[in-house]
Amino acid sequence: MSARLATLRTDAGQLAPGVMLSATIAAAAAFLGGHYGAPVMLFALLLGIAFNFLMKDGPCKPGVDFAARTLLRLGVGLLGLRIALDDLALIGFSGAGLVAGLVALTIATGFIAAPLLGRQWRFALMTGGAVAICGASAALAIAAVIPHNDKTERNTLFTVMAVTALSTIAMIAYPVLFQALGFSEVQRGFLIGATIHDVAQVVGAGFSVSDRAGELATIVKLFRVAMLPIVLLAVVLTLRFAAVERPGGKIPLLPWFMVLFLALCVFGSLVGLPPALTHQVDLVSRALLITAIAALGVKTSLEALLAVGGGHIAVVAIETLVLLAAAIVALQFFVTLG
């Protein structure tokens, strides 16, 4: 027992500098984001990159690697408590079918566009999932289950940066666009929830239209978030049956953070948890994800990030435009909302 405690102390001592560095960057990003009203994850990413020199030598590397892997997975797992199945049922079968179809179409678009622009399937899946489901959180979750290569961390950071920037632009532009196209208040709320990448920007755009539109936009967005474990499970099973292996061995049938995600989703739906508790868990999840983004930033050099090329930008832009156009056409001609 004493030997095990000594080992734990040693491990904790090795991890502490890197974890503390990542957490400090995350705290600074949260302060800047709150002060300036800008995306916190983007600040965490940029601040993390500024400390990349600490990865070359010194004691920070083990803790930064731990934050970028384990804390990332824990943050994704805790996202499950956000989802209440009763709330998701409010969008109806036609709305749910439309959202599911848009998610599938967007991911498929990534797999079509990426090879045409010289990009790999990993990048197609990561960006397609991020655009289709829930922005940075989906990018991090998908990065956690796919086999890594030398470009995975760079591509993850690029995806987070791209979808965060596009979400901020969409938060401002989409409500104006949807009003100009003549959509009703309810339709605008649905479209905002179905097309903007990150949750925070969906809420901001939705409530800028009206309270009713904001509530519907949030519910639609949560339905997209609820599709994350389905997509992750499909990815894991596909890779497993295709005999793709990752550096640590075979891909598990169901990673532990996915089990946690699903368990919290079911538990939160069946048990009436106090809103204060779910809010605190959501804050912890967000803090872990921001810390993981900061750690990924520390692990990535600015030179490597700038070397991605125009093809990366084009893939994300195409996915975003296809999602927007498909949602507008479907709601205009095929799906009726109030």
Continuous helix count:
16
Strand order of the largest sheet: 1-2
The helix-strand sequence is HHHHHHHHHHHHEEHHHH
Distance between the termini: 64 Å
Please provide the count of β strands.
2
Strand content: under 5%
Number of domains: 1
Q: Compute the CA-based radius of gyration.
A: 20 Å
Based on secondary structure, the structural category is mainly alpha
Largest sheet: 2 strands, antiparallel
Percent helix, as a range, is over 70%
Give your account of this protein's structure:
The protein has 338 residues and is mainly alpha-helical. It has one domain (2-333). The chain is 79% helix and 1% strand. The chain contains 16 helices and 2 strands. It has helices at residues 2-36, 40-50, 61-78, 85-88, 92-116, 121-134, 136-145, 152-180, 185-195, 199-209, 211-226, 228-241, 256-270, 275-299, 302-306, 310-333, and strands spanning 245-246, 249-250. The longest helix has 35 residues, at 2-36. It is globular, with a radius of gyration of 20 Å. It starts with a helix and ends in a 5-residue tail after the last helix.
Give a concise summary:
This protein is an all-alpha fold and 338 residues long. The chain has helices at 2-36, 40-50, 61-78, 85-88, 92-116, 121-134, 136-145, 152-180, 185-195, 199-209, 211-226, 228-241, 256-270, 275-299, 302-306, 310-333, and strands at residues 245-246, 249-250.
